[in-house]
Amino acid sequence: MATSKAGDKEYGKGRLAMNAPPIVSQQEWEAARQQLLVKEKALTRSRDALAAERRRMPWMAVEKAYQFESPQGKISLLDLFEGRRQLIIYRAFFEPGVFGWPEHACRGCSLGADQVAHLAHLNARDTTLAYASRALQKDIERLKARMGWKMPWYTITDSFDTDFGVNEWHGHNAFIRDGDKVFRTYLINSRGDEAMGTTWSYLDITALGRQETWEDSPEGYPKTRPYKWWNWHDNYDAEPSPDLKWVEVTEDADAAFRKREAEAKA
After folding, report:
1. Which of 121, 127, 246, 266 is the Cys-Cys partner for 86 at CB 3.0 to 4.6 Å?
2. Is the CB of residue 88 less than 8 Å from the CB of residue 130?
């Protein structure tokens, strides 16, 4: 990537010389990586265990009838699910008084919005992601068009942000529904929001998780085998059943996955 000399000079202004790590051979580098990999694998297992605890969090019944503005008019919290079982709402700061208004949303919220994965993958796991702010819909639509964002984005019209702990700081609230009954299942905010954006990070904060067979979930939770439900983002509706060639590939990958898991637990 090309950079200007002026930019390089500005970036390096006032910086001390780096105390860089030693230069080593390939064998020494591999040994160092393997040593660190032990800790990385431990972190992965710890993250999986934390997600399993989230799936056992108590649920909080949502009693109030919250209202939002959408491009089609007023809608309820239940409508935000778009017929799916789970909902994640990110409270983004885009409104008068926020730095960047009216051209931009908050810089941090905008950085997060730029990282949002294609929503088709979340939707395939019966989960909807939505953004909510206090800006009017005409301003939200203008912002989305300018920045190229595709997620549904609603206007908060009542005490939703205050009631769910996101009136003064950004955050993701996770919900699940049982028919017309809505329950709050989790909240992640502050530095926890830094990790959000991938399909996996969103699913890991939901009550049902990734819904894959390897997960430690309560009895009766929906589960399918890993890899099998994955698809191209434009193909979930067109091909609900995976292609036979993909089945063969994933069978091999699935076997390798189970073998690695067994070795890790040994």
Report:
1. 127
2. yes
89-132 confidence digits (pLDDT tens) = 999 999 999 999 999 999 999 999 999 999 999 999 999 999 99
Predicted structure pTM score: 0.87
Q: Is the backbone of residue 132 left (phi > 0), alpha (psi -120 to 50) or beta?
A: beta
pLDDT digits (tens, 9 = 90+) for 137-187: 999 999 999 999 999 999 999 999 999 999 999 999 999 999 999 999 999
Residue 207, CB-side half-sphere exposure with 13 Å CA sphere: 24
CA 147/CA 110 separation, integer angstroms: 9
Contacts made by residues 189-198, CB under 8 angstroms, sequence distance 24+? 189/165, 193/108, 193/112, 196/90, 196/112, 196/115, 196/172, 197/112, 197/115, 197/116, 197/117, 198/115, 198/117
Measured CA to CA, the distance from residue 138 to residue 50 in angstroms comes to 40
CB 116 within 8 A of CB 88: no
In DSSP terms, which residues pair with 127 in a beta bridge? 86
Which amino acid, 150? Answer: K
Q: CA gyration radius for the chain? A: 22
Structure token pair of residue 261: 């898991």
